[in-house]
Amino acid sequence: MSTVDATAGWDRLIEHDRVHGSLYTDPAIYEAELERIWYRTWVFVGHVSEVPEPNDYVVKSIGPQPVIMTRDKQGEIHLLLNRCTHRANLVCDAPRGNSSAFRCPYHGWTFSNTGRLLGYPFNSGYDGREAKRELGLGRVARIGIYEGFVFGSFAEEGPTLLEHLGAAREALDRLVALSPSGELDLSAGWLQHKVKANWKMLVENETDGYHPQFVHSSIFSVAQSGIGELYGEESTALSRDLGNGHTENDLRPEFRRIGQPLGWFGTTPDRVPDYVAQLEAAKGVEQARELLIDGSPHVMLFPNLFIAEIQLFVIQPLAVDETVQHVTAVQYKGAPDMNRRMLQQTIGSVGPAGFLLADDSEMYERNQRGVHARSPEWVVLKRGTHRERLDEDGHLVGDATDEVPQRAIWRHYRRLMEAGA
Ligand code: FES
Ligand code: FE
C-alpha cells in the first residue's frame, strides 16, 4: 500500500529530484494517465511509408486502444478505432494489408476504410440513414503528420502537433536529412517485446546516459566500436531537456571531437560506400560529411517514440505493470547498402537473440519488482542537479550521464496530470 495519498496532489508524489514509487504501481494512477496523457496528448502512431498505396492499412494502437491506420483511395491517411460500433469486436486483425473495407467477423457489419458504415445484414432496428451515419467507426479526433510521422490525439482541442513537438522537431529533421532521397521507409515490420514493467520506466531509460556502461558493457566489448566511451565520465556528450517531456542524449559533441562519422554499431562509412556517395551527391560533400559526423539522433519524444540512431522504438502501455516495445530499423528510401547494415544491426541488437534490448528489459522488470518496496519509497533522480545549465538555445543540459532527461520527463508529466485533474 502506498503511504502517500494520490488524491492529495501530484506535488506530494513528484518533487524536482525524486518521485514516489506508487507512480509505477498504482492502478488508479495508471487509469488517470490514460485519460490525461495517452488519450489527450499527441501520440506517435505510425509512418506514411507503412501504407504506401491507396487502400493499404496497418493495425496500430494508442495505449491499449486498438487503431487502424488506413490510406483511402484518394491517398488520404485516416486513424480509425479498431472497434466495431455494434458490440465492440475488432473489425480488423490482419496486421497489414490492402482493402477498401473491413468486415466485422461477429455479425458481419462492413465499414469503409474511411470509417463509414457500408452495410449490415438483417438490419431491422438499425435501419435508416441517420443510424448508418452515427454508426461509422470511431475516429481519433486529430491527426497530424510531420515528415511522414503520423501522430494522433483523442483531444478535439489542444496544442498543435508542431507546438507539441517544439524543439524536438529537429530530431525528426535530422533523421530524414540522413536519407539521400529525403525519405524514410519504415515498412520493414516491427519486433515486439513485452515487459512486466510500468511504461514510464522505459521512457526514463531511453535517454538515460547513466546506465549504458553498466547494463550494456558486454555488448560494448563485443562491438569494439568505442561506443561505450560516449557514456564515460570524460565524455563531452550532453543530456538535454528539449521541452514538453522530450529529451535527448546528444552525442554530437563527442562525435565532433573525435571526428568519427557514423558512430553507431558497424555503420562506419568504409562499410557503406554506396550510401556515402549517394548522400554526397544529394547534399554536397561538405554537408554530407557534417551530417555523417553528427549522425542520427538519440531522442525520446514523449510519450512514446524513441529515435535510437538506427532504430525506432514505440512504447505502448497495456497495464500498470505491462508494456510493449515495438521496434523497427530505420531504412532510407533507395539506400540498399546502408539499409542492409541498419537492418542487420537492429536484428542483431534488439532481435530475439540480441543483447541490447534484453539487457534493458531485465532492468525494467527488476525495477518494477523493487519499486513495490515501501521503505525507502522514493526513486531519486539527483545526478547532475548542481551542474544543470542552459545551452545557447535555452535548453537545460547536463553531462552525458546526468539525470537531466528524467527530471524533465517528470516535470512535464506532472504538468499534464495536474492539467487533467
Ligand atoms: Fe461487429 Fe456485431 S460486433 S457486427
Ligand atoms: Fe539501454
Characterize the overall form: globular
How many E strands?
22
The span between the termini is 22 Å
Mean pLDDT: 92
Share of residues in strands: 15-25%
What's the CATH H-level homologous superfamily of the largest domain?
Naphthalene 1,2-dioxygenase Alpha Subunit, Chain A, domain 1
- Based on the structure given, which CATH architecture of the largest domain is correct? Alpha-Beta Complex
Computed over alpha carbons, the radius of gyration is 22 Å
CATH topology description of the largest domain:
Naphthalene 1,2-dioxygenase Alpha Subunit, Chain A, domain 1
Helical content band:
25-40%
Total count of domains: 2
The strand line-up of the biggest sheet is 13-19-18-17-16-15-14-22-21
Poorly predicted regions are none
- Main CATH class of the largest domain: Alpha Beta
Multimeric organization: single chain
Structural category is alpha+beta
Number of helical stretches of at least 4 residues: 13
Biggest sheet architecture? 9 strands, antiparallel
Bound molecules: FE2/S2 (inorganic) cluster, fe (iii) ion
GO molecular function, one term: monooxygenase activity
Domain Rieske: 42-140
EC number: 6.2.1.-
Family: Belongs to the bacterial ring-hydroxylating dioxygenase alpha subunit family.
